[in-house]
Amino acid sequence: MxxxxxxxxxxxxxxxxxxxxxxxDEVIETSKISNADAFECFAKGLMWLEQxxxxxxxxxxxxKQLRDRAAxxxxxxxxxxxxxxxxx
Length: 88
What we know:
- The chain is mainly alpha-helical.
- It is 67% helix and 0% strand.
- Residues 1-29 are annotated as: Disordered.
């Protein structure tokens, strides 16, 4: 491309094709992470952090708290909150 073509391209407003390509690049799919998966990840992260020589006690405590929170939420989801009502 010549200089004048490059300048014209830069000054030109974005066309629909350019917008469509950039939108496709920015699409990030997010799915809900289960409490059980979060617990497993925090537990493995905690094991990893405990193996590190430069780990800090505050980091360990924070990760333990997050692991415990995930464990409580996982446990609460496993319990049935109400018994189904069946008329006789």
